[in-house]
Amino acid sequence: MKILRLLTVLVIAALTFAACDDTTEGIGGSITNKIDNINISDSAFNVTTKSIVAGAVLSRNNTGLIGKMKDPETGNYVKGDYMTQLSVLPTFSVDTLDYIKQANKGSIEADSCYLLVSYNASYGDTIAPMKVTAYEMTKPMAEDQEYYSDYDAFKNGWVSENNPHWSSNYNLSNTSDVKNFKIYLNKKYEKDGKTYKNYGSYIMQTYAEHPEYFKTNYKFLHNVCPGFFIKNVGGTGNMAKIWNTELIFYWTRHKTIKAKDGVTDSTAVSIGYNRFDGTEEVLQLNKIENDTKNLEQLANQNQQNWTYLKSPAGIFTEVTLPIEDIMKGHEKDTLNTATISFPRLNNIDEDNAYNFATPSTILMVQKDSLKSFFEKSKLADSRTSYTASYSSTGTYKNAYTFQNIANLVSAMYKNKAEGEKKNANWVNEHSDWNKVVLVPVNVITTTQGYTTVISKINHDMSLASTRLIVGTDDPDKDYTTDKKTGKKVASGPIRIKVIYSKFKEE
């Protein structure tokens, strides 16, 4: 019977919450005494928020950024470079080497070689002239290491200014369905005292001498091509979101066709190519440079008006939850629901064509678990971490809404109680115990049968920025007086709304 009663409580509480408005007036009274000796009550509490500079974030990502531009909303400059490795298939081969030799007087040569940098989104002025340099890496990146967005490819020894490098001018005005630009690797290339016509010729001749180097990614990276560091070296005004970087080289082959009469042989000429892609099996790291001074000013100067969500590696919003107030007097009650919504402020200049996008999805995670969440590739567990998508319509218009973080509230309260049992100074030593952080993220999903599930959550590396209404708790401003009870009622700009239930004492 008790199990049945509890299930009834949960159902009723959920239905009740779905029907309530922002005021949540009269929730408890509307159903108290009607469900098998169960009392249901509600309350709302002010929540405080502030901006915090994100600092460096975990850098490994499936997408890269290249370019430099200024956020028209905040005035912050952001620059993106990236480092990428290339993958080789076990079945890789260069077709008919003998025919390629025939076309090149007995030598194995590539006619042309380039990096094809493909992007699926662009930001800023697409016709702004930009310049990029591709450095061949000195050594491959290690798989057993975590990399953050403030890495220094040169100081860490992955790249040297003396390494072979190639530059290219480009813009992002490509109007075709397939958007890309090329970095040609066609100048002479030297390696181990030998000079090659171009980088493609180096790859082909190495394959001819050591085909075993092309059987696994590890052998390829350590013996042939460690990867490339793609660096913005000129231009301001746009950025490209990179989804793939390919090394492509073309070659010509000649095949002699014997004449039937044995006299007039002919030559069949054809052109072929090979390619290596950046894939999930190899590393790609984003390097992000923000105007740190500007970020600090943004995070500090507008705390009374709004907070920020800004990516990549920009600004997060810290939230302090009033855990003790929520649980006071309800220590033995069931916390059925706890809902909180973070309203967004529209851009100051909504008509600016170069405004950064609004973050589509944010993660709520305990502050003291923020770093480990990404390093351990965790997923939102609806207990200590949650995701919410931006909604431009509906009940919670222009906001990010977490429908029920009751498990988080209960877990925080329990952790505090258990900590204080062992250490009376626990709260002072764990000052972030009741704090969470809102972080823009990229959610990757997979389909399993008819179900779509989240498979990975990464830091959002796209250009995104928005302001949120700041949460405050001013006893003189953020409370109103209940006319019936005469008690102060939370009325701050951001409130957590909760519903409790308990069995009546008989």
The overall pLDDT, averaged over residues, is 89
Question: How many domain regions?
Answer: 2
Please estimate the helix content.
10-25%
- The radius of gyration over CA amounts to 30 Å
* Main beta sheet strand tally, sense and closure: 12 strands, antiparallel
Gross morphology: elongated
Task: Summarize the structure in words.
This protein has 506 residues and is an alpha+beta fold. It has two domains: 223 residues, no CATH class; 213 residues, no CATH class. The chain is built from ten helices and 26 strands. The strands form four sheets. Strands 1, 2, 15, 16, 17, 18, 19, 20, 21, 22, 23 and 26 form a twelve-stranded antiparallel sheet that branches. Strands 3, 4, 5, 6, 7, 8, 11, 12, 13 and 14 form a ten-stranded antiparallel sheet that branches. It has a two-stranded antiparallel ribbon with strand order 9-10. A hairpin with an 8-residue loop joins strand 12 and strand 13. The two termini are 16 Å apart.
